[in-house]
Amino acid sequence: MTQSFNCPSCGGTLEYAGGTEHTINCSYCGSMIAVPEELWRDAENAKTINKWTRYIFLFFAITVGVPVCVGVLGTILGILATLLGIGGTIFAAFLPFIIRIFSK
Ligand SMILES: [Zn+2]
């Protein structure tokens, strides 16, 4: 989030894009300007909230997402195994007729 403030030396508009730097070089007069604390404090708070959002997302991905994926995969494998079983049963039922046809 880019925030702007005025250079205390020349009054030029300075853009502060956040980050770890608490000073900025004025592009109008070349002075090294200390960024007002409320600007970098906001940027740092936003970064901390972002970090926690990432941790919470990771927590739910591991505790909910992975078990759900494993469960869905197990269900699909179960359905496939059931279909294979049904196919095998039908094949076994017709096997004597098939053998009789080919043994003639
Ligand atoms: Zn300046």
What topology does this entry show?
Layout lengths: L2 E4 L6 E4 L6 E3 L6 E3 L2 H67 L1
Antiparallel strand pairs: 1-2, 3-4
Bound molecules: zinc ion (ZN).
E-strand count: 4
Report on the biggest sheet: 2 strands, antiparallel
Number of helices: 1
Radius of gyration: 34 Å
Span of the ends, CA to CA: 83 Å
Q: Structural class given helices, strands, pairing?
A: alpha+beta
- Which segments are poorly predicted (pLDDT under 50) over 5 or more consecutive residues? none
Principal-axes geometry comes out as rod-shaped
- Overall number of structural domains: 1
SS strand fraction = 5-15%
Order of helices and strands: EEEEH
Strand order of the largest sheet: 1-2
Hetero ligands = zinc ion
- Mean pLDDT, all residues: 91
